[in-house]
Amino acid sequence: MAEVFIFKNAGYENRVLDLSRTDNKTVLGWEENGGGNQKWRLQKHPNNTFIFQDLDGNYLGEDIGRDRPVGVADSIVAVGFRVESAGRDLFKIAVFSHNLVFDLGEDKIVRLRPANGSQTQLWKRERVQ
User: Fold this and answer.
1) Residue 79 phi, psi dihedral angles, 5° rounding
2) 109: number of Cβ within 10 Å
3) Would you say the pTM of this structure is higher than 0.70?
4) How far apart are CA 18 and CA 30, in angstroms?
5) What is the pLDDT along the chain (129 residues), one digit of tens a residue?
6) Reduced to 3 states, what is the DSSP secondary structure of residue 103?
7) How, if at all, do strands 40-44 and 4-9 pair?
């Protein structure tokens, strides 16, 4: 079985990737609380990686496009990601076929935006049990 991770944002160190419990679809940058909706698994394939939520098993990837919020779908929707090293134990999470990365806004919503190297686009991956 794939390892379980939390992804902490470098720009907002107290915020992690979190599946909203309000709509069970939107991915947020929320204060770390140890909840299952903040734990993620990576399913690696030769050319890309699928990311799925540990609690419900939903995959990231529905409605992918520039400035759109990151969300989940019930099954893989042909959206692969690249989890790429950005140095200093940091990573950026990019859409496989685009130059769009996860970017955490002040409103706590994770959106896909063009890569610019800002801290809000960098994530630290930590293994959890």
Assistant:
1) -115, 110
2) 16
3) yes
4) 6
5) 688 999 999 999 899 999 998 988 889 999 999 999 999 998 888 878 888 878 888 888 766 666 778 887 765 554 778 888 998 899 999 987 778 899 999 999 999 999 998 999 999 999 997
6) strand
7) antiparallel
